[in-house]
Specification:
This protein is 32% helix and 9% strand. The protein has 130 residues and is α+β, with helices and mostly antiparallel strands. The termini are far apart.
Length: 130
């Protein structure tokens, strides 16, 4: 990050979107601690860093196991399927929870704010596909 001019992708939910009991895919919540770690790394780099949400609809290509597995290397199966993706507007990280002083609450609110953006975009992608 301190070099600048780089793009990288972080999956703060670990790509574990799963189907609910009704068979609909639900976007997994984002891990507030991972989100904060990336944000703090960016601030420490002393380079201007921009954050953009990236929504991926790739479930059919490599769905996760039915249950959450704690082991590293959970078994996955890959299939050919169409995918969709969408970049959102830049996220104002400083402003997304500016009114909150408690660090834990600020992390939670920021992650929820970004999750809502991703979830809304995901629902729009699903509508396009159907």
């Amino acid at each position: 990050l301190s070099e600048g001019g780089k793009i990288f992708y972080v999956a703060p939910s670990g790509g574990r979107d799963r189907k609910n009991t009704a068979g609909k895919i639900e976007v997994a919540p984002l891990d507030p601690n991972i989100m904060e770690m990336i944000y703090l790394m960016a601030k420490k780099s002393q380079k201007k860093t921009y954050f953009y949400p990236l929504t991926l609809d790739t479930y059919e290509v490599m769905p996760p196991p039915l249950q959450v597995e704690k082991e590293i290397g959970e078994e996955r199966f890959v299939a050919k399927a169409p995918i969709q993706l969408a970049f959102g507007q830049q996220i104002p990280m400083e402003e997304s929870a500016a009114e909150i002083t408690d660090k834990f609450t600020k992390r939670q609110k920021r992650a929820a704010y970004i999750w809502q953006i991703i979830n809304n975009t995901y629902q729009q992608l699903k509508e396009i596909r159907t």
